[in-house]
């Protein structure tokens, strides 16, 4: 179930003079359990790609498969449920719910699914993320780095098959960055999670199994790093 495949994805924003081709015929497969970095200059289409992979932004053309499931063949209601079950998406700008505190934001996908989050599990994750003393704080009462860690917790809490992360350490210092990448790798190995991580940090990219480079909406490089933590391409 955890493999990802995209076929001939194009995404165009705007019309006429304002038309922007954010993605231009992008195809690749990520086997289950592979941790892949996506790199590229600002505006190269990385976030657009991640949102399309995560089922939150329909492509202009092309297909996305999770295992055998053609994601955009689902109607919007089924797509929302599918997303909640299968994907943990860490947004570049967090997308936290402003009226919910840190703990409530982290457990929201589970609660929306009718589950009762186990307190020990919540406590362990808050501890791992260094948020125990901030659990009752609203996003507006947290620093950028703390909000980023809440958004990472929300994506990891339900242990989905696929984790998609948009510059997940963009607001963290080097120590926190190392801890978060280690946490993502641990989750990847323990749960055989398929991960795609957008990053500007060459050091992070080199810790992944594979690096895909985008430029102007196209893949210009696709290489294995030799980390060997995940599956072969
Ligand atoms: N909602 C949108 N409307 C119009 N243009 C957009 C929108 N989102 C992204 N773009 C454009 O698409 C291109 C790719 O954007 P994005 O995927 O955010 O790149 P990256 O994440 O690599 O910085 C950019 O030229 C950007 O301006
Ligand atoms: Mg981006």
Give structural notes:
The chain is an alpha/beta fold and 233 residues long. It has a single domain (4-224), classed as P-loop containing nucleotide triphosphate hydrolases (Rossmann fold, 3-Layer(aba) Sandwich). 33% of the residues lie in helices and 26% in strands. It has helices at 46-53, 76-86, 102-112, 119-128, 144-157, 174-191, 202-207, and strands at 4-13, 20-30, 35-39, 61-66, 69-70, 87-90, 162-166, 194-198, 210-215, 218-224. The strands form two sheets. The protein has a six-stranded mixed β-sheet, sandwiched between helices. A hairpin with a 6-residue loop joins strand 1 and strand 2 (20-30). Helix 3 runs parallel beside helix 5. The mean pLDDT is 94. Bound molecules: adenosine-5'-diphosphate and magnesium ion.
Instruction: Tell me the CATH superfamily.
Output: P-loop containing nucleotide triphosphate hydrolases
Number of domains: 1
Order of helices and strands: EEEHEEHEHHHEHEHEE
Whole-number radius of gyration? 17 Å
The general outline is globular
Secondary-structure content class: alpha/beta
In short:
The protein is of the alpha/beta class. It has helices spanning 46-53, 76-86, 102-112, 119-128, 144-157, 174-191, 202-207, and strands spanning 4-13, 20-30, 35-39, 61-66, 69-70, 87-90, 162-166, 194-198, 210-215, 218-224.
Task: Sum up the structure in keywords.
233 residues, Rossmann fold, 6-stranded mixed β-sheet, 4-stranded antiparallel β-sheet, globular, binds adenosine-5'-diphosphate, binds magnesium ion
């Amino acid at each position: 179930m955890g493999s990802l495949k995209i076929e001939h994805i194009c995404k165009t924003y705007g019309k006429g003079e304002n038309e922007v081709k954010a993605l231009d015929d992008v195809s690749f497969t990520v086997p289950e359990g592979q941790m892949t970095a996506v790199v590229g200059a600002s505006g190269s289409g990385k976030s657009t790609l991640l949102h399309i992979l995560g089922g939150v932004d329909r492509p202009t053309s092309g297909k996305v498969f999770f295992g055998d499931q053609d994601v955009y063949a689902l109607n919007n209601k089924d797509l929302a449920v599918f997303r909640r079950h299968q994907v943990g998406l860490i947004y570049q700008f967090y997308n936290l719910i402003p009226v919910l505190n840190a703990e409530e934001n982290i457990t929201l996908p589970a609660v929306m699914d009718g589950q009762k989050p186990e307190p020990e599990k919540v406590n362990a994750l808050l501890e791992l993320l260094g948020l125990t003393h901030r659990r009752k704080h609203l996003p507006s009462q947290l620093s950028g780095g703390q909000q980023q860690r809440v958004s990472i917790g929300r994506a990891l809490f339900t242990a989905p098959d696929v984790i998609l992360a948009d510059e997940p350490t963009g607001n963290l210092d080097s120590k926190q960055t190392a801890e978060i990448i280690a946490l993502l790798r641990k989750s990847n190995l323990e749960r055989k999670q398929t991960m795609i991580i957008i990053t500007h940090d060459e050091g992070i990219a080199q810790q992944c199994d594979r690096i895909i480079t985008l430029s102007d909406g196209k893949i210009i490089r696709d290489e294995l790093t030799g980390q060997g933590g995940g599956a072969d391409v």
